Amino acid sequence: MPGLLLRDGRPWGTGGPTDLLVSGGRITKVGPGLAAGDAEVVELGGRLVLPGLVEAHCHLDKTLYGGPWRPHSAGPALADRITDERLRRAELGLPDPARVSALLETMAAAGTTHVRTHTDVYAGFPGGRVAEPPARGAVPTVTAGTGLTGVEVVRDTAARLAGRITVEQVAFPQSGILTNPGTAALLEEAIKLGVHAVGGIDPAGLDRDPVRHLDVVFGLAERHGVRIDLHLHDPGSLGVFELELIIERTRAAGLAGRVTVSHAYALGQADAATQDRLAEGLADAGVTITTAAVFDFPVPPVKKLRAAGVNVACGHDDIRDLWSPYGSGDLLDRAMHLAYRSAFRRDEDIELALEAVTYGGAKALGLAGYGLAEGSPADLVVVDAETPAHAVVTRPPRDLVVKAGHIVARTDALSRPPRG
Amino acid sequence: MPGLLLRDGRPWGTGGPTDLLVSGGRITKVGPGLAAGDAEVVELGGRLVLPGLVEAHCHLDKTLYGGPWRPHSAGPALADRITDERLRRAELGLPDPARVSALLETMAAAGTTHVRTHTDVYAGFPGGRVAEPPARGAVPTVTAGTGLTGVEVVRDTAARLAGRITVEQVAFPQSGILTNPGTAALLEEAIKLGVHAVGGIDPAGLDRDPVRHLDVVFGLAERHGVRIDLHLHDPGSLGVFELELIIERTRAAGLAGRVTVSHAYALGQADAATQDRLAEGLADAGVTITTAAVFDFPVPPVKKLRAAGVNVACGHDDIRDLWSPYGSGDLLDRAMHLAYRSAFRRDEDIELALEAVTYGGAKALGLAGYGLAEGSPADLVVVDAETPAHAVVTRPPRDLVVKAGHIVARTDALSRPPRG
Question: How far apart are CA A194 and CA A217, in angstroms?
């Protein structure tokens, strides 16, 4: 297959315009004035080149993306949203391959080359009980589990888009593990179907027994060699305690680089000294923090975490689903939200948000060779922006998207000089 | 002049498609199946019609919009930004009519028909002192005042765009009034030049004497019959106290409907009982709260304020200037940020954010007859969205913008059926 010669791009972190030669799905050469040989030449006109964007946290199986507008139907509490989803997902035909596909197409066109998605995997409640914080006395009405349907739908839909975007799944016990007997076994079946990671959710606040919840999650990860990505919404000192448990257990299991905590609101709420202590622990244990900077929820202290050596990734969380009507699928948009909520004004700070949707996500997912170096997989996106920070602020069109060496999307703008 | 017949629009998404007849700058008739006469017919195909968007708080005189990317140059503290701006505005040629014009063009094309902008008006510091919170010992380096240059530049630039977008100015003492002798007189000169409102800024935190600061601001408003729009960033109980003073003074001066407090972070920070008490006072006194929902600053409790009868408006605050590199000039984008930070998920809640950039802003500015009724000024914007909430979430292109009965912007999409 003839390759691509990307002429006069400005790869993030380098000086003046240079060429990138792409062949066999990899960036084989970077430098000025490269010979094209039989490669197709694409003139970038000095545009900015970023590595392919990495969506580190979303829920493809829940999405209504691309369908008609569905006014949000749940009440204000978390338990309302859990119950509402359990009630309505069958009615709305979720997970819906057409919706998943529509969202992945949008993501790919917007420069996302890799996606980690949390797919609901939970058992039914034969007794009629819905997993809810016990303080709330809502009537349990929905008892069906997900089985492995979500995992299969996402897997099969992603397979049809292979080569355009890479999807890896986390088996996600949305309704608890311990409080939802049968879910641990389902998680194990999901792993056997090929999911890359096992998830967890509020080991204390939702599942009521943090240590035994982590026993199950870490046990599955260790037995099957998969990664871990836990949802942690628990606030305040409870959330801090759980972060400590996760740090200790990651160290003990020797899983540095293979464990992610998503959301970690408690980290954003903690006082400065506690943040410092946790940042040191997370860095030392090799635990990634993934944030989505959604709504008004606390955002972890990205700059402090990065300064301490903690890997930080970013994703959308919900996109146009029964949990949230918002979300575009555009990771530059999401990076803007993260930078904005972090009150990042200076270029070097705003770049931290861009790093979260690129290198940070790649590290969380364990993508080998990720980047724009010679030998890296040829996953990249080209935008008309002066600097990486400028790209985050303005979120310009993706003029060219290359995945595994193939052009996935391009705009007419490439035939014109950049706006500068 | 022949008018316009807008065929098959859905005003604010309520009820079925209807026609709007526009003539002499007004909406003269609303109803199905209207006769066009000699009016130009524009088929809306069932699209959503909103009244013209109202930008209730921005700083046109500071903007670098449309120019090259300028990495943020100030340090992290508020005083750093004040000093940085005083240092760099001359170097960058601010206020710059070309930048102001570029931003107003973008706003108009995005459906904004009215703008309230705060224009810096402050005296120089002959002694070399820069107004700063006294706790901070930064070296005073910039001593020049603004004179009335900003007011004139904005006035003249807006005049060139008259008919496309209406701009009103607030004379804004960015560097204080009491602590910056000569500024009160300048504010009075600005009023004589035709500004619509007099501003203020942190009467306690910045200007060090809340009562006398309000004496000056309210005194000018009463003597000259202009409106008031005060910046209030002061946090916590200090900000609450200042809100109380403003409520009391608005009542005493009989200025209901003519006073706005912008930002009011303290209102977002207060406990529920204090919020309730202030909401009642603000409603009773007729004080508008304008929020921009920027960065991670506290957002006033929009739903609670509206339920109590308080008028709420919204604007961008800084747009691509020395204070903030962010901002698009698109008020649907800004409404999304407000809805998002308010964690509004349900349609009826998300609509509150849209109301803030339409009816709420119109009320703050005192726009007579504003809306989509027969007799209203023909200021409106048409988008391809199913509901008002859908428009906030997706921020679709503005397919048609009409200002004072004239078409300001239209897209090719109008020739095609809506996506639905």
Answer: 16
pLDDT tens readout for residues A321-355: 999 999 999 999 999 999 999 999 999 999 999 99
For residues A97, B389, A138, A174, the Cα torsion angle rounded to the nearest 10 degrees is 30
- Give the per-residue SS3 of A27-60: EEEEECCCCCCCCEEEECCCCEEEECEEEEEECH
Q: What is the ipTM of this complex?
A: 0.95
Helices (H) and strands (E) in chain B, counts: 13, 16
DSSP E strand boundaries for B32-96: 40-43, 48-51, 53-58
Question: d(Cα A215, Cα B294) in Å, to the nearest integer?
Answer: 42
Q: Which residues pair with A18 in a beta bridge?
A: A9
Regions of chain B where pLDDT drops below 70:
1, 126-143, 420
Contact yes or no for B119/B65 (Cβ under 8 A): no
By the 8 A CB rule, do A213 and A177 touch? yes
Best mutation target, A345, A387, A393, A394, to test chain B (most B CBs within 10 A)? A345
Whether B347 and chain A come into contact, CB under 8 Å, resolves to yes
**Strand positions, DSSP E, A246-286:** 259-263
Amino acid in position B417: P
pTM for the model = 0.96
DSSP state for residue A323 in the 8-state scheme: S
Which run of H or of E encompasses B190? Answer: helix B183-192
DSSP H stretches of helix in A75-169: 78-91, 97-109, 149-160
By the 8 A CB rule, do A318 and A85 touch? no
**First vs last C-alpha separation in chain B:** 33
B174, B74, B73: which is closest to B125 by C-alpha?
B174
Contact between B207 and B162 under an 8 Å Cβ cutoff? The reply is no
Contact B237, B209 (CB under 8 A): no
CA distances to A112, A373, A392, B86 from A44, in Å? 19, 18, 19, 38
Residue of B nearest to A349 (CA): B72
| Cβ pairs bridging A and B (under 8 Å) | 66
Please judge whether A346 and B71 are an interchain contact, meaning their C-beta atoms are less than 8 angstroms apart: yes
Is residue A147 within 8 Å of A157, Cβ to Cβ?
A: no
> With bands split at pLDDT 50, 70 and 90, how would you rate the model's confidence at A420?
low
Residue with tokens 């946790």: A278
Contact A207, A177 (CB under 8 A): yes
SS3 B301: coil
| Torsion sign over Cα A17, A26, A58, A236 | negative
Q: How far apart are CA B374 and CA B28, in angstroms?
A: 5
DSSP run (H or E) holding B260: strand B259-263
Whether the pLDDT of residue A134 is over 80: the answer is no
B325 in contact with A at a CB cutoff of 8 Å? yes
Contacts of A350 in chain B (CB under 8 A): 325
Encoded tokens for B171: 């004379």
**Residue A294: CB partners within 8 Å, gap ≥ 6?**
A316, A317, A318, A324, A326, A337, B340
Q: Where do the H-state alpha helices sit in A110-182?
A: 149-160
